[in-house]
Task: inverse folding
């Protein structure tokens, strides 16, 4: 990702930056995820996540109109009309409504018990908040949107600025369409002391076996010490177009990853 180097450009005095390029993930594949894909990411100085939500709503409507000639589409069993008023879904409130779990009060044991009850695949070795994220994935499938997920816990957003209303949360938003996250943005954390502490916490998670924990980027912390303006960052992948077409990712790329021919024959022999 180009996130940290684009924010270094903000430190250098560039107020607006963007990148369009390939991303690679060392993770599994499903209808919504591929191991390599194209993403657009921008950073906009001197605004916050509220301005980001306003801009991205306008952008998504314009893209849908230009792509499919309509603001309405169907995907994953949901009918979506982006011309409607966009809803705001609070992270903790949504999970509590769908599962009865208060993520800020529940223990790791409580979260694990609920995931088992829901028959959600999970890894007991990761920390509580990674399990909470798995619980959220169960809930989001029920949300048609269009809307914004807000109120994310600090522990799940190491690069986002803290909320002024609730210190447990951050100023982050994700675009929700047809039960899927189709874009991610937030007010950027520009406090070097806070950022360094969050990197240290992420490092601890990585040492305990969390593959999704971030590395401690000392050069980025040093850049923040020179002063980064308040800003909103946002990223969207080609998944948005898969949604508009109502198709899984593998059907929307020219050369999807395939199992080698020899592997197929080996499996038949077994």
Result:
């Amino acid at each position: 990702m180009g996130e940290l180097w684009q924010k270094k450009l903000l430190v250098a005095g560039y107020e607006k930056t963007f990148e369009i390029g390939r991303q690679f993930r060392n993770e599994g594949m499903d209808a919504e995820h591929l191991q390599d894909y194209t993403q657009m990411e921008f950073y906009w100085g001197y605004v916050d996540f509220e301005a980001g939500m306003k801009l991205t709503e306008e952008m998504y409507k314009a893209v849908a109109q230009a792509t499919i000639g309509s603001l309405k589409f169907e995907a994953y069993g949901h009918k979506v009309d982006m011309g409607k008023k966009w809803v705001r879904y609070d992270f903790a409130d949504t999970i509590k409504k769908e599962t009865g779990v208060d993520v800020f009060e529940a223990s790791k044991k409580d979260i694990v018990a609920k995931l088992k009850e829901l028959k959600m695949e999970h890894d007991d070795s990761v920390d509580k908040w990674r399990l909470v994220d798995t619980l959220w994935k169960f809930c989001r499938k029920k949300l048609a949107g269009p809307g914004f997920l807000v109120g994310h816990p600090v522990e799940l957003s190491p690069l986002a600025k803290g909320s002024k209303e609730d210190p447990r949360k951050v100023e982050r938003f994700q675009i929700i369409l047809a039960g899927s996250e189709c874009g991610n943005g937030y007010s950027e954390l520009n406090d070097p002391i806070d950022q360094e502490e969050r990197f240290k916490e992420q490092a601890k998670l990585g040492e305990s076996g969390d593959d999704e924990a971030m590395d401690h980027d000392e050069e980025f912390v040093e850049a923040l010490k020179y002063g980064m303006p308040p800003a909103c960052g946002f990223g969207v992948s080609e998944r948005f177009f898969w949604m508009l077409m109502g198709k899984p990712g593998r059907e929307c790329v020219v050369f999807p990853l395939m199992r080698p021919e020899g592997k197929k024959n080996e499996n038949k022999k077994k």
